[in-house]
Amino acid sequence: MKVWFRKRFAVITGGAIVLVASAFFINARITSWIQGPGFKELLDRETSKGLKLQANYGTLERDGLWGLKTDSFHGDDGSKTIISMEAHDITGAFNPLGAILRYWEIDSLHLKTGTVMLQKTEAPPAASNHAPWPPWWGLVWPYRVYLADVQVDDANILWKLRDKESGIYGTHLEITPNWKDFEYEAHDGDFKTP
């Protein structure tokens, strides 16, 4: 009985040591990948495609087990509603359960400050409200990003009126998803026009 118990204890202990060592190795590899230039280029490219502008994130850092933070974001040359966007002190947390449902979900995205310049746009005549078919690899790997909640402590939402900057300055902005669209809720701030 003692020999059987010792063998089983040795196997369980060895398995636990291998599991912990593997977790540390995988964690270190994930951290180096997220903080490396390849991930930043991927994030810049995918954000540029999603927002229809030239996106550039600052230095990326891993924040906890599922979190990510950066000191800045800059986007310009927008071709749709958003012309330019500037944000500072950005933090967010990834929801790993979303990958099982084949999408990336970012929970609690928080921006300390942000400024967005908007323009009026018209839908093209042949615009379709249907989502495009996913790529073939979308059957096994997530390819969409969902934002669960976005909070901006100090937001400036701007547009041109009579060729001068106008908008809402210093507002607290919260963006939450509503099916395939978003709901925007702003509190406080100053509305200024020329």
List key phrases describing it:
194 residues; alpha+beta; ten-stranded mixed beta sheet; elongated
Task: Please describe what this structure looks like.
- Strand 2 and strand 3 form a beta hairpin.
- By secondary structure, the protein is α+β, with helices and mostly antiparallel strands.
- It is built from 3 helices and 10 strands; from the N terminus they run H-H-E-E-E-E-H-E-E-E-E-E-E.
- It is elongated and about 85 Å long.
- Strands 1, 2, 3, 4, 5, 6, 7, 8, 9 and 10 form a 10-stranded mixed β-sheet that branches.
- The mean pLDDT is 81.
In short:
With 194 residues, this protein is of the alpha+beta class.
Question: Structural class of the secondary structure composition?
Answer: alpha+beta
Q: Calculate the mean pLDDT score and round it.
A: 81
Kindly state the percentage of residues in helix: 25-40%
Order of helices and strands: HHEEEEHEEEEEE
Largest sheet: 10 strands, mixed
Q: How many β-strand stretches?
A: 10
* Residue share in β-strands: 35-45%
Number of helical stretches of at least 4 residues:
3
Computed Rg: 22 Å
Shape estimate = elongated
Distance between the ends: 88 Å
Low-confidence stretches: none
Write the layout of secondary structure elements.
Blueprint: H1 2-34, H2 37-51, E1 54-57, E2 60-63, E3 67-76, E4 82-95, H3 97-100, E5 104-118, E6 145-147, E7 150-161, E8 164-178, E9 181-187, E10 190-192
Parallel strand pairs: 5-6, 5-7
Antiparallel strand pairs: 1-3, 2-3, 3-4, 4-5, 7-8, 8-9, 8-10
